[in-house]
């Protein structure tokens, strides 16, 4: 699991759609590579989103153990920001938007935490955290000076207009006639059944992937046990003796089952991620005021190298 190729593949899957199973495998890979800060980040996400499925229950103790060991090597910063939606940065790197879902894991030492939001002054604080330690940071954001100055004349003008005799003797400003505004056409309500259908299909794909992963792990354990038993009996399967031919054939068959289950699990995870991405795209796609012309269309696509979901539309 410490192969850089595996790490790159899992990171690509994470970019497509952050899901618990990808986070679990990516966290395990980072843990094996001794990248404890990243391991803690992915494993904590996986545990926060752990599904209520019996098939995944046996994997959870591993995730908890790896997280505890990784957590002991790094520090954590709990960030609270007064304005929801503010962009949170640690050492200049964006970690998410307030409110953050969990702690931000950092290497031991000094770190700068910032919060940015349009129209507000940047709030920041520098903290020092040690191995296994946690520091709480509270950032209070205030309106930017330019925003505050623009608000003051408006308030003064309103007070002057309401004062007694304010209009006496004053020249009356001529106002240019304004054409009546055209009545805005109400956008059509979004249909949510595609999101429900795609989400349900994604969940099914995820369940199949987890089930195949667990089944493959069980068969792999059997393969190791059978190989060890053959070796303990003084045999080997490269050029098996007559007494070990049947046992080696069974061992090879079990190995093929492991490969098959792994391929099925990988395909299920990819399908689940694609379906989840399609559901999210449909849900967040902006609606066109002119009507259904701006709504995206979700369609299945197949080609000789595979299949997927295509979302068609225009911004």
Automatic annotation (TrEMBL):
Record's compositionally biased regions (Low complexity): 154-171, 180-189
Key words, A-Z: Membrane, Transmembrane, Transmembrane helix
Matching InterPro entries: PEGA, TPR-like_helical_dom_sf
Stretches assigned to the PEGA domain: 79-141
Transmembrane segments annotated in the record for this chain: 192-215, 266-285
Region ranges (Disordered): 154-189
Lineage top rank: taxon: Bacteria
Cell cycle listed as a keyword: no
Pfam families registered for this protein in UniProt: PEGA (PF08308)
UniProt-recorded name of the protein: PEGA domain-containing protein
Naturally occurring in which organism (per UniProt): Sorangium cellulosum (Polyangium cellulosum)
């Amino acid at each position: 699991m410490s192969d850089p190729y595996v790490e790159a593949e899992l990171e690509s899957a994470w970019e497509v759609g952050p899901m618990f199973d990808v986070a679990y495998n990516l966290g395990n890979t980072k843990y094996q590579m001794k990248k404890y800060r990243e391991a803690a980040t992915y494993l904590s996400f996986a545990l926060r989103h752990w599904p209520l499925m019996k098939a995944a229950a046996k994997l959870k103790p591993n995730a908890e153990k790896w997280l505890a060991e990784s957590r002991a090597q790094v520090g954590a910063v709990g960030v609270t920001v007064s304005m929801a939606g503010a962009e949170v940065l640690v050492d200049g790197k964006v970690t998410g938007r307030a409110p953050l879902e969990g702690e931000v894991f950092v290497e031991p030492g000094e770190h700068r935490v910032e919060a940015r939001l349009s129209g507000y002054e940047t709030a920041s604080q520098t903290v020092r955290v040690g191995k296994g330690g946690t520091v709480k940071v509270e950032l209070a954001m205030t309106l930017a000076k330019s925003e505050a100055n623009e608000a003051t004349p408006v308030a003064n003008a309103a007070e002057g207009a309401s004062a007694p005799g304010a209009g006496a003797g004053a020249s009356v400003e001529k106002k240019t006639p304004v054409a009546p505004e055209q009545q805005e056409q109400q956008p059509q309500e979004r249909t949510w059944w595609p999101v429900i259908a795609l989400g349900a299909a994604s969940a099914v794909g995820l369940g199949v992937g987890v089930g195949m992963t667990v089944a493959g792990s069980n068969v792999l354990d059997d393969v190791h046990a059978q190989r060890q038993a053959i070796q303990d009996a003084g045999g080997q399967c490269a050029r098996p003796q007559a007494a070990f031919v049947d046992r080696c054939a069974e061992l090879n068959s079990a190995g093929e089952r492991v490969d098959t289950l792994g391929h099925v699990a990988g395909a299920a995870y990819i399908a689940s991620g694609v379906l989840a991405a399609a559901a999210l795209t449909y849900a967040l796609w902006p609606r066109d005021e002119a009507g259904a012309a701006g709504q995206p269309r979700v369609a299945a696509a197949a080609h000789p190298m595979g299949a997927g979901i295509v979302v068609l539309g225009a911004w």
